[in-house]
Predict the 3D structure of the following.
Amino acid sequence: MKNSLALSYRNIYILPSKRGLVFVALITLLLTIAAIYNNNLVYLLSFLLASIFFITILHTVKSMAGLNLKLGNSPAIFLGDSTKTILWINNPTTMTRYSLQINAEEYDIPTQDKTAAIISNKPNKRGWYISPAPIVSSSYPFGLFRAWVKLKFNIKTLVYPQPSTENSPFPENMSTDNQQGFAQQQGQDDFYGIQKYQAGDSIRHIHWRAFAKGQGLSVKQYSSENHSAEIMIDYELTKATTQEQRLSQMCRWVVEAHRAGINYGFKLGTLNLKPQLGDAHYQQCLKALALF
């Protein structure tokens, strides 16, 4: 399936809008009045309006013809977020395109320029999400006609499970140099500062005194980044009741461990990864959760 399209008169559809139908009714009424009263001025006005009506067809189609559309990236998201698929609109001509509509959003495309439009949809389950075909349309210049094209692109977005909202501690199967676990090791670290709270930060580290003073939500930071700590994120160690809740809990552990710089292993079904760090490991774990 192609993910690019050059718009031309052959693949653009056009029909009168509601305003256009009202305009036709007005012309019909004027012609009726002109015929009854044999009034040449009303005839002239009717023919002038009819000429504008038919010329608008060409201008409306021309406002889209010549554009090149190409599908861009569709970054993976967590369940509950909206997709942000990029659609590149290239205008290689010397004519500015006005009021180009893509899924209720309007764009003006300058001459010989490229614009990135964002296509948003909200998936209702994890896994691969196939976005509905977006519609690119235009009612320029007078709104009497609506020209459109339906883009039958293959828009796929990977949807990770939504991280659990429950602040469950990491699994207690950690291995450090003294085999005491992450929680105990962190208690031996020296406090060195605070930083602004981000989604996924542990509630245990929130600086509650600063929050009570109206200084905003922040979390405490310690001198050790816990690189020596290792945990194993295992499906069998989750305590939730349903599969989706357990995957959601694993997703939160993966996100928190990645942000905290903790070496973490991952076990889900037949997939068994050794403890490590890095974006590639992070993405591999989240993808496994999405497609399980």
Notes: The longest helix spans residues 40-62. The helical segments are 18-37, 40-62, 182-187, 208-212, 243-260, 279-291. Confidence is low (pLDDT under 50) at residues 175-188, 223-227. The first strand starts at residue 4 and ends at 6.
